[in-house]
Amino acid sequence: MSLQELRDLVERHARPDTAETVLQDVHVSAVRHAEPDAPSMSGVVWALIAQGTKRLAVGDRVLEYGAGQYLVASVDLPVTGEFLRVSADRPALGVGMVLRPALIAELLLQAPPGALPPAGAPAPGLVVSDASDELVDAAVRLVRLLGRPRDAPVLAPLVRREILWHLVTGEQGATVRQLGLVDSGLAHVSRAVGWIREHYAEPFRVQDVAALSGMSVSAFHRSFQAVTAMSPIQFQKRIRLRQARLLLAARPKDVTGVGQRVGYESPSQFSREYRREFGLPPSQDALRLRAAAARG
């Protein structure tokens, strides 16, 4: 089996309106038009590119991966990404799968003694690797099931499990295995990420979030930076600005109110940081978003 078959399958089954499929946690996509860098959240996913190249920026890291390579995101991080050099004749094609910690934990418990290395320091939350032939083979068989509704309910969970096994034993296994370890460094950072996302508009002391995560301040800083490529304060700022953008799309004339709602006391600071993040002042960006929505 080959990437060419995977390309054909993805192009056949990809829908223009959504990447979701009838298979639980399985996504396929065909991107036919180049778009500017788009801020979004990464999700906790595995994504394999069959055709094309994608560039992602998270914190101070930039990752680029292309055909035959895959991305693992072990934390839902604010990212900016774009597909490069796509066209209607040569779309970017890919398959992805949501990573469920419970399924990974089950695999780790069933692994033979010595089959997996011991847990180490927290690995980055976004990593890229070349896909093995076995991983591509499993991805092909998974996407094939989109055309086999009788077999899919029984076989898809087995193929998803096979993909997870290739991931936990592969080059980026440390990142994936962390998801299944309740007491891993990633688990501690994920607790902090979840708390900051829920309380993004509130000021906080790093030592308090470190204590919530069960870590010393120094260990928390190291682990958070290693996983997210950002400091906790930078992470909070990214979440605030993305939430502000969503609010401004509906309330383009209330820049000051939106800034206050997401936690900014100073309108000038809000406008300055918003422009640095999205390339335009809040009011202008809001008008652009509404115009784009009207066209779509």
UniProtKB/TrEMBL annotation:
Q: Which PANTHER family does the entry mention?
A: ARAC-FAMILY TRANSCRIPTIONAL REGULATOR, TRANSCRIPTIONAL REGULATORY PROTEIN
Q: Which InterPro entries match?
A: Homeodomain-like_sf, HTH_AraC, HTH_AraC-typ_CS, Tscrpt_reg_HTH_AraC_N
Gene3D superfamilies annotated for this entry? Homeodomain-like (1.10.10.60)
From what superkingdom does this record's organism come? Bacteria
Indicate the secretion signal residues: none
Keywords for this entry? DNA-binding, Transcription, Transcription regulation
The record's GO molecular-function terms, alphabetically, read: DNA-binding transcription factor activity; sequence-specific DNA binding
Q: What is this protein called?
A: AraC family transcriptional regulator
Where does the record place the HTH araC/xylS-type domain? 190-288
